[in-house]
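PT: before anyone asks, these are the final sequences, not the draft ones from last week. 364 residues across everything. Please model them as a single complex and drop the result in this thread when it's through.
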Amino acid sequence: MARRSAPEVNAGSMADIAFLLLIFFLVTTTIETDSGINRKLPPIQDEQDPPPLKERNIFIVLINSNGDLLVEDEPMDLKNLKQAAVQFLDNGGGTGDEACNYCRGAKDPSSSDNPVKAVISLQNNRLTKYSDYIAVQNELVAAYNELRNREAKRLYGVTFTEMEEAFKSESYTGDKDKLKERIGVIKDMYPQKLSEAEPKRTSS
Amino acid sequence: MSKFKKKKSGDLPAISTASLPDIVFMLLFFFMVVTVMRDTSIKVKNTLPYADQVEKLEKKDLIMYIYAGEPSDRYQSVAGTEARIQLNDKFASLRDIKQFVFEERQNAREELRQAMIAGLKVDKETNMGLVSDIKTELREAEALKITYITRKGEALKNIE
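LR: through. Structure below.
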C-alpha cells in the first residue's frame, strides 16, 4: 500500500480571520493624544486679606456673556489682546528695587512695574460662553509664551517652548537638570500670574 | 509513460498567498498594542473649543476626564437640554465630583496620586457658570491641577 501523507490543513481562511480582527482594532483605535491648556487652581484657604497690589500692576480683562472684551476699561478685539498683554507685562516701569533690567517695554509709569509683580485678572460672568473664555485664556498664555520665548532665545539660544518640549521628551540626550534649572529661570522672569475671580452672577 | 514530463511553459504559477496571514497578523499586533479602548461613551455634546498654546498630555492614566455639555439628542428626553456633567459613563451632579475624584485617586498607584490631572472636556457652547462650579468642586476636593482639553487651532476660530 502506498503510504498516504497527512492532508495539509487549509490555511486559506486564516487571512480572513486575521483581517476581521484587524478591522476591529482599526476601528476602535484612537491614536491621537489629547492636548490642552494647563492651569493650576488656587487652594481654598481661610478668609484673609489679599496682599496689597498697586492698581497699575493689575491688568483687568472682563468677558461678558456676548464674548465682548473690556480690557482696562476699554473695549477691545480679541486679536489685539495678546499685544496689549505683552505691553503690560513687559512694561517695566519700576525704579530702584523694582526695576526690570530685561524688559523692553515703554516704561510707562501708569503700567506695570515689573513682570514679577504684574497680575492679570480675568473676570467673567456665569453666562460667558466657554469657547470665549478659552480663547481669552489662550491669548493670555500666548502673551506669556512670547515673552518667555524671547528671553530664552536671548539667554540660551533656544525658545522656551522648545526647552519645555525637550524636557518632556524621553529621547532628550542632554542634561535634564540643567534644562530644568533654565526653565525655572525663565519662569521666574515672567511668572504666570493669572487670577480668576469667581464669576459674577448678574449679567452685565 | 515517462515520469519526467516537461512542464508546460505557458501558464504562470499562482502567486503564493501563504505569507499574507503573516503580514496581516503583523498589522493586527501593531494595532492591538497601540489601541486604547474607549471606556466611556460620551453622552453629552462635545465639540471642544480651539486653542494653540497647548501642551500634550502624555500619560493618559493620570487624567481624570470630566465631560460637560448639553446632553446629545438621544438623551435629551431623559436628561433634558440643560448642560450636564458626565463622569465615567453616566450623568452626574456637581456633588458627585468629589466622590469621583476620591475614587480615581484610590484607583491610581500610590506614588502617582499627587500627579493626577483633571481633564476638562467641555463643550464650547457651555456657560462658564457650570465650569466654575466644577472648578470650585475640584478645589474643594484638592484636585488643583486641571487642564482644559482643546482642539488644535487658532483661538480666533472660536468666535464665529
